[in-house]
Amino acid sequence: MSPSSHKCFCRVRPQEPHGHPCSSPRSSPVQPYFHFVRDGTLYLVYELCDGGDLHSILAARFQTSGFMEESEALSLMRQVLKGVHYLHSTLGVAHRDLSLENVLLSRGVCKITDFGLSTDARKVCEGGQVGKDFYMAPEVVAGERYNPALADVWSLGIMWFIMLTGSPLVSLASPSEKAFTAVERHGVGAVIDVWGHSDRISRDTISVLEKMLQTDPRRRIRLDQVLAHPLFSTIVE
């Protein structure tokens, strides 16, 4: 970006924060405050989220007290799900790089960040791998044309799975990976059982995870259907 191309932005400009008339601050992306250009570089200033990111918080939890309780994971995931649903349905944006690292916390409130790979949620993507290996949907890994909103649902399912088990479901959602072929054949519930977590993760949670982590995107549940599940309607924020 050259200085001459952005002379008109040399003064600090406030940003209008995104709002949703039907949502709480718990369901919003990190808010932009202002931007400015200095020495030809564009700087974006966002709200301070000093609570760390979900990945760091989860890592610290496993080192001290062990697994995250299902109820806590549900509460956090509901915030993230609502935030991504707001992106999809109101802003028309698919994130395409959803991960625990890209959810920050501010006073216990989840904030979605890092939109460098985001795209139009209503358009089919032509292929190409984007995102982090652990979180990429099978159709993205395969380089197929894909629905980015449904790819986001897979990534959200992986986030939730990691919060509950402490490990990613697969290193890469590709038929070349033995773990992935096992998921294709037996489902996520079988993995949870083999890993010894079925006694601490409810049937309802496993059922929703199974639907979010369908390897065939045509069979994958939509985000609005996830949020409509009774599992999330019982949570009080």
TrEMBL record:
Tell me the protein's name.
Serine/threonine protein kinase
> A single Gene Ontology molecular function, please?
ATP binding
Output the PROSITE patterns linked to this UniProt entry: PROTEIN_KINASE_DOM (PS50011)
Gene Ontology cellular component annotations, sorted alphabetically:
nucleus
Q: Which InterPro entries match?
A: Kinase-like_dom_sf, Prot_kinase_dom
- Provide this UniProt record's keywords sorted from A to Z: ATP-binding, Kinase, Nucleotide-binding, Serine/threonine-protein kinase, Transferase
Species of the source? Phytophthora nicotianae P1569
Domain spans labelled Protein kinase: 1-232
What SUPFAM superfamilies does the annotation carry?
Answer: Protein kinase-like (PK-like)
Organism taxonomic ancestry: Eukaryota, Sar, Stramenopiles, Oomycota, Peronosporomycetes
